[in-house]
Amino acid sequence: MSSSRSRRLLGLLQTDEWSTAQQLAAQIGRSEKTVRTSIHELDGLLEGHGAHIESKARCGYRLQVDDKDAFDAFMAKSALAGGGAPQSVRERTDYLVVGMLYLMGYVKGQDLCNVFYISCSTLSSCLKSAEAIFAQYDLKLDRRPNHGMRVVGDETNVRRLIAERYVREQSYPSELGDDAQEFLARLARVARGLLAEYDLPLTEFSFESLMDYCVVARSRVLAGFTLRLHDDDLPEVDERVREVAERLLDAMGLSGALCGEQNLADEKRYLELYLAGSRTANFGGKNGSNFVINERTDRLTLEILRLLTNDYGINLLDNFDLRMQLNQHLAPMAIRLRYGMRAHNPLLGEIKQNYPLAYQMATLAGEVLRPHFGGEPIPEDELGFIAIILQLGVERGRLVTKHDVLIVSDLGRSSSALLKRRLEQRLGDHLGKVYLCDQFDLETYDFGKVDFVFTTFPIKIPVPKPVLQIGPFLDEVDARRVEDMLKGDVTLDVIDAFIGPERFVTSISATTREGVLNQLCDLICAHEHVDEDFAELVFARERLIQMCLGNGVALPHPNGIASDNTFAYVVVLLHPIEWHGDPVMVTILVSMGRSDEGDDRRRVLSETLARFALDTEAVARLASSPSYENFRALLGS
Hints:
- This protein is α/β, with parallel strands linked by helices.
- It has helices spanning 4-13, 21-28, 32-46, 68-80, 89-101, 109-116, 120-136, 155-167, 180-197, 204-222, 239-251, 261-277, 295-312, 320-338, 348-354, 356-369, 380-396, 413-427, 476-487, 491-498, 513-527, 534-544, 599-613, 616-624, 628-636, and strands at residues 51-56, 60-65, 140-144, 148-152, 403-408, 431-437, 452-455, 467-469, 504-505, 553-554, 567-579, 582-591.
- The relative contact order is 0.06.
């Protein structure tokens, strides 16, 4: 049966209900006369193959199967042999995949051999390749003795396979219809108009994916394959999405499809979900995004922001705009993950390179989301979108540019006042309040009032703020150093304060993940002011969330705030060890403290370590030459 029109007619007639010529004509887009002629031809083709088309006045037509085995064999040839026999292994596999997806019943292996004029061993090889393709979409071959084989699995996955493997690659199997490309172009014009009318813009990739799905959905429905949504807990979508989906269904010619009222309602509902899942939160147009945010999504968002605030010492939890943006992104993302819809992020590489901290945060957010979406890792494209939103939240925390500073001088009150005036004249745009004190008042000074400390002599006592030693007259070199610090270029000062050579470790001898963490926690408990259950909290976090970046770096944390002050330990191991399935050479444990060291300093620490952890070359260079001086040089470069 070489005509795709005949195949579509046969699919429509494979029901228990009668279909009139008028109804069939509407389905295939041809006249009633053409339908009657095609049915007559089809009945002739079926002669001798175990079936015939029954007609009844005032009722219409329907298929009557007399010999199921003979009819199944005929259907195998009909579905698989159109367009000439395939020659290459790839062509045979593709014909096999598509043809079997459009078979209603079982087909025997010998019938497939007859279709392709191939041996059983060649067929076995093609079937193995086909099954590997089916498995990628959670489909499989069901084999039954004396019946043959057929593809079983969710209809949404069948459509995803056809759309991604064929339509997206500009391949249009005959099962999609003779007019598939013409239909696609016509539908795209209608869809662009609808999306503009309802102010629902999509990325180009999302739009193309939507169109690919529509082409496949039309062919499946017309061939008698409909989907059923059994889930009562379906996500809500807004009214605009529902209206666009209904009008798209009309444009696809499916509103009057002979598939039953419930099936048609499910097709419309899934199209609504597909359209809603194609959207992204940063598109909204004049009417806003109008994503439906439920309580469950908001709780998940708060869980993510609470964890990120604790882990990175940057207050994201109180950022309401960030919370709403993340909520609005998670709503359509949940639909995509739930129904296997792919998101494409063309900027993923640039996001990793330019926003390493935000991407690392997004990776951690992905671990929070993972158990809520079947336990599978969140796709990198989705993490990239989350990273952009988090980067906006991090950037908003940088809006304050003026800093309160303390000048500590041992040169007397007049000299201190002169240094203060020179600072204000040279760098007043970056300064808030400027305080003065001498070395005798330093031990009792309230450092909570200031962001930075500038001193004219070496300070011997611990100071919980960045300290920069300068000359008494603020020459050009000192002025540039102070300006760099006020502008935030304090990377190495922060690294020295929170890590330093004393927290750079090369003496861990353990050969397992548990052993490394035990030795590291023992070392930390002996030298830092940490809670008694510090080690327990580190292992609790490992059980909940594993942060391995796949390039030789592991990032354990305590599960919550567990130390008085912020610090980080960098461990270079003697040999790679397995860490949740990945080989690891460098372990960086960060503990955010309870004391107020300032969001800016914690942000610099987190950003610097994130950038290093994502730099595969830098990690390899540190592993080959493990010293604090080399680590510091790699960060500075």
